[in-house]
Design a protein that fits this description.
Blueprint lengths: L6 H12 L6 H18 L1 H13 L5 H13 L5
Amino acid sequence: MLDQSKANFFRYEMEDFLKGTPVAPEQQSALIQTLWAKGSRDSVVEARVFLNDKVKEKIVDPATQQKLLAIMDRYTTWR
């Protein structure tokens, strides 16, 4: 699960990273919010599956996916 106490840090880091990627600006906010919602409420596995689906839909490229996964890993808490 994603660490709820670091929600703002997660969003700011994702926004900063996505500015320099080929992800369309109108989809960036929705992508960040959905990753956060799935990662904090369901599980990080669900967020990873969602991100894989976006790669298959060609919304996110594989290089961007790897960086987004690394950011998610940094904000993951293990219980």
